[in-house]
Amino acid sequence: MTASPAPAPRQQPGPDQPYDLVGIGIGPGNLSLAALAHGVPGGLATAFYEQRPAFHWHPGLLIEGTTVQVPFLADLVSLADPTSPWSFLNYLRGRDRLFPFYVAERLHIQRAEYDAYGRWVSDHLPGLHFHHQVDSVRWNPELDLFEIDHTRLDGDGEAEALGRTHSRNIALGAGTEPYVPDPLKPLVDAPTVPVLHSADYLAHRERLRAAGHITVIGSGQSGAEVFLDLLRGRPHGREGITWLTRGDAFAPREHSGLGLEHFTPDYTRYFHALPEQVRDDLVPRQWRLHQGIAPDTLAAIHDELYRRTLHGGWPDAVLTPGVRVRTAGRLATTMVELHLEHTQQGTRSRLTTDAVVLATGYRERPLHRLLAALDPYMRRDSRERPRVDEHHRLVLDPSVTGSVYVQNAETHTHGVGAPGLGLTAWRSAAILNHLTGKEPYPLPERTAFTGFGLERREPSHVVPEQGRKLTPLSRQI
After folding, report:
1. Residues facing 152 on adjacent strands
2. Which of 90, 115, 174, 258 could, after both became Cys, cross-link 57 (CB 3.0–4.6 A)?
3. Strand 132-140 versus strand 145-153 pairing type
4. Phi/psi of residue 51, each to 5°?
């Protein structure tokens, strides 16, 4: 059974005609934007470029059984347009899997399934160009257009052809890249001892399982999943695994309904309106909203450790929070020595290990080389970060009449929800509404029960039953 056919796109412009929108990078953000742009009435001329050969979503962490941390409705389109042909439910329908999904009663889908869904969209959606590396973006004031230079790559990643595209608007979706702490950078590229980021975990899992002792560094969701997967593959009593984190605890992520309202458009708008210094002070204090561990993962880890005590003894597993790596070095040619410091005790020690997995998170991919030609037009904040307005646009000099929209690069202006999947469809719809100057995707005015500030909000009125007068239950001031 094939997927339901999508509406036919408008004829794409010729080489001498500008696009309405060019996207750089095809991760979930720009894939969502491309899917919703495809459904804009009247059509938009779009092109999206990606250096990789195909869509993949964190392929190194698609561990069996791991799930996406947001409900399946946070797909590429549904929270903006649940009738879109690019929804997750339509993906299931096209694969004859709607009833199995219904019977399974799953709110959170497996990561591998989200990855396959995204690839299904990218395989069928027109206007996507993989194996294309964008080299530079500049503003042409004579044409009132952006010029995008790109290189088409062959199957080996080598340059095959050069091209130039013109567009009225740009969408940056370059995403993030793995972060490696400075003390461990010299070790990552050496082949003799596996020191790798969790982003590459699956490709090295068998080699890691064969190591005598393994150290996992980092206590976010990725670190917990890697630790659990390694633990399950180690023999009882000879686990030989250490899990370290700088954090004060292996702490659960905030997962209450009111806590999750920090990932709504209401909070995004509130956060954006705060002064810059307030925003900068606030984000680190909200780490439990996005850097903690899913409670069910923590429970699974404890269950696995407990199960290994049933016949006496303790597993050879060490879990220690409050530890930072001061320095690291190679010991002979087959081991790594980590120099550790406990941040609360002030004590120091050394740990010798055969392999290290760095679950140390991601950082926004630097764009200064790609956008070097736009730098004279760009407005920056007090810390030299690009300013991003409420429409998810870089704030540029008024002489630039086109817009550069950003995806997953605006935590400093839009809050902790910016990198998450839950706001992806809403942000794409907001961008398209602004770009078209219309409202192809009507968006809700209110999305949270919490009123994050003291601004006045009119109460919702309920239509009274006949002969009965109702008053609002509450009023916010």
Report:
1. 132, 161
2. 115
3. antiparallel
4. -70, -35
List, for the chain, all residue ranges whose pLDDT scores fall below the cut of 50. 1-12, 14-15, 462-465, 467-477
CA-to-CA distance for 391 and 172, rounded, in angstroms?
Answer: 13
The three-class DSSP label of residue 353 is: strand
In this predicted structure, what is the pLDDT of residue 457? Answer: 58
Phi, psi (5° rounding) for residue 30?
-75, -25
What is the structure's pLDDT at 14?
40
Token pair of 62 as six digits: 């698609």
Backbone torsions φ then ψ of 424, nearest 5 degrees: -60, -55
Q: Can you tell me which residue has the tokens 């879109």?
A: 84
SS3 (DSSP) at 328: strand
Q: List % helix, strand, coil for the chain (3-state, nearest 5).
A: 30, 20, 50
The answer to whether residues 25 and 56 touch, using CB atoms and an 8 Å cutoff, is no
For residue 63 the two structure tokens come to 């561990």
pLDDT given for residue 456 in this prediction:
59
Question: Is 406:28 a contact under the CB 8 Å cutoff?
Answer: no
Q: Angle, nearest 10°, between helix axes 221-232 and 295-307?
A: 30
The model carries a pTM of: 0.90
Q: For residue 31, give every residue at least 6 positions away whose Cβ sits within 8 Å of its Cβ, in sequence order, or none.
A: 48, 55, 76, 118, 121, 122, 125, 128
Would the CA dihedral through 36, 39, 41, 45 be positive or negative?
positive
In the three-class reduction of DSSP (H, G, I as helix; E, B as strand; rest coil), residue 367 is classed as coil
Residues in the chain: 477
* Order of all β-strands in the sheet with 159-167: 132-140, 145-153, 159-167
Write down the pLDDT at residue 197: 95
